[in-house]
Amino acid sequence: VTFFPAMLSLPAGSSATFFCNISMENDSELEYSLNWYKETNHSQGQKIAGITHNDLQWKTEKYLVTNHTGVFRMEILNLHQCDSGSYYCGLITFKPNNVIESSRSHLVVTAAPENTNPTDEPEMEEGNPLDHIKPVILSILLLAGLAVLLIFAYITVIHRRGGMIPWGSHAVLRGQEKPTMVPVPIVDYGVLEFQVDQHAHVPQETWLVRHTEYATIIFPEEKPTTLE
User: How far, in Å, CA of 93 to CA of 58, rounded?
Assistant: First the structure.
């Protein structure tokens, strides 16, 4: 009984294939079964598969054994790093009863390679900054356009309404250069005192009486004022 290849080193995710070859005289008349074992750290072998001489295939999600008439193809599917170890096959015969083990083969499962494409990296590096800058530029343009529209709308509304512009200490309507001059009379009050002339020919009885006459005089004067 031989088991080969003696050494395999494969990445995780792939499949490992071993072959167990049986060489016997008159093997077509001999009843036997074949077991597949795994050893880890020189521990006792653990059976992982078993097939008889009449079976053509034995399969699980992890292991596949195919009988090619004396040559058995043994596969480990979807390798993981825990699948690393030593493997061998054991032949069990009946009449006469006998157990024959093959030599050990070693399997080393390495880490899966990273799926990177070096030719794509420069394109990604060049494309990433543009992807970040484009939204920023678009936002700035939108804000600038919105500001221009708001200013234009404000000027249009003020122009249509006539608006108010400052003039001196007053606010006047847009389109008027100066406030309207409206004459408004003002009133100043004064007192005039009249006394009786002593040398006037007035009856004597009136000399002893002194009195004051008051008069109000209105002087018109123009004063600028607004429409208010």
Answer: 19
DSSP annotation string for 115-147: ---GGGHHHHHHHHHHHHHHHHHHHHHHHHHHH
Q: How many residues does the chain have?
A: 228
DSSP 180: P
Least Cα distance to 101 among 44, 41, 35 occurs for 35
> Could you tell me the domains of the chain?
2-110 (2.60.40.10)
106 token code pair: 């070693």
Model pTM score: 0.50
Taking the C-alpha atoms of residue 61 and residue 112, their distance in angstroms, rounded to an integer, is: 20
Position of tokens 């900054």?
A: 129
What pLDDT digit, counting tens, does each position of 204-220 carry? 555 555 566 666 666 66
Q: How is 82-120 classified by DSSP, letter by letter? A: GG-EEEEEEEEETTTTEEEE---EEEEEEPPPP---GGG
How many other CB atoms sit within 10 Å of the CB of residue 197?
8
Indicate if the alpha-carbon torsion angle 41, 47, 48, 52 is positive or negative. positive
| Angstrom distance (rounded) from CA 178 to CA 226 | 10
